[in-house]
Amino acid sequence: MMRAELPALPYALEALEPHYDATTVALHHGKHHLAYVNGLNAALDKLEAARAAGDFAAVKALSREVAFHGGGHLLHTLFWTNMKPGGGGEPGGRLAAAMERCFGSASAAVAQLRAAANAVEGSGWGVLAADPAGELVVLQVEKHQNQLLPGFSPILALDVWEHAYYLKYQNRRADWVDAFLAHLVNWEDVERRFTALGR
Ligand code: MN
């Protein structure tokens, strides 16, 4: 049976300073992300019990729990690996070539991602994803599970929930988005994920 686990961070809590403070990273990973892992596992346990009892009265609510907490777990897992100390710079290689093909230029792709992240209504994510044919799109995900498309694989996830940035950036979401893109994003990881799709 599927079980979720909190992945270890690929760097120290303070490694992304000063652009992403250690306190926010510690809370974000150790409390918020963990809550999605636990929420997903709790829903899966309840579904297992429902199957054993042959009682699916709660299947609608539990399916929503799986989508919300599962989406939160998977997008956060992507988010952590999409950052590195000394990140930023420009996308390269196959990723940049695909961005030029799909958006006109790499800078246009990044500009659309920035705008989508800044314009999320409420809590959500700016996401770069590849469709089944390997074409890139920017998705604007609300909460953790809405406005994703079946068959589209996220390769970059930028968290714009307030818990992701409020301690350091307060209400200035755009400053957090700018810091992520200028100093944190690990384009090599994004390109590696794109290549690994084999599309
Ligand atoms: Mn988050």
Q: How do the SSEs run, as a string of H and E?
A: HHHHEEEHHH
List the ions, cofactors and other small molecules found in this model. manganese (II) ion
Content-based structural category: mainly alpha
- Helix amount: 40-55%
pLDDT averaged residue by residue = 97
- Which stretches of 5+ consecutive residues score pLDDT under 50? none
User: Which percent range describes the beta-strand content?
Assistant: 5-15%
Number of E-type strands:
3
What Rg is obtained from the alpha carbons, in whole angstroms? 17 Å
Quaternary: single chain
Largest sheet: 3 strands, antiparallel
Number of helices: 7
Instruction: Describe the strand arrangement of the main beta sheet, using strand numbers.
Output: 2-1-3
